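Quick one - first record:
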Amino acid sequence: MIRVRRPGLPVVALVAVLALGAAGCSGESTPGGVASKAASAVASVGAELDAAAADAKKKLASVKDGVNAQSDVKLGAVAQDADGRTTVPVTVSNTAPDQKSFAVQVNFRDTAGNLLDTVVLTVADVAAGATGQGTARSTRSLSGEVKAETGTALRY
């Protein structure tokens, strides 16, 4: 099951307070208008996260006869690509006696543990006893310190 945490009331309140403070200094917008824009931005991020989680769930559900392979997955260092997307190298080890493919869910979280994005990476046709590699890439630009973790990992 994929759980999605949306920004809670304290985060929305903080964004609104910061936006109100900025509006009071700039004189370019009304405080209510800036607060409305901030709330709309938070809702937009929540909708994007819901869509990413639904896509990940759909991809994992399409895997037939998959077995748990979480212990066969290693994530590298989190980085940012030229497009501003968060990336992480993924290495899978095929411990099965024949060629297998892997579907690996990678969750991107902030330092407080809040889910920022989730993606599913496929590493196809890994020979028996060999390793395969791929790169998980966030669906949008993520800000702040981002950590990656393996969610569901299936070998099939």
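second record:
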Amino acid sequence: MADDSGAPVIMRHTACDHDTHAQVVCSSCGESLHHEDIDVRTGPGYPARLLDDPGIRARFDRNGRPEATADR
């Protein structure tokens, strides 16, 4: 939402008293995560009853990525 005048809201981390921003990082290597670097797949806790649904199963290709649809 920031424009040429700057960010509309600034977060301050009270523990170190510095301005900061939210950042999503990999829990394994600490590198910043970007959507183009992420693959999504079902995990062991994904409900088996949903995997039996062809419509749900079709959302995941062989690489575990959600399949692109026209409305995305």
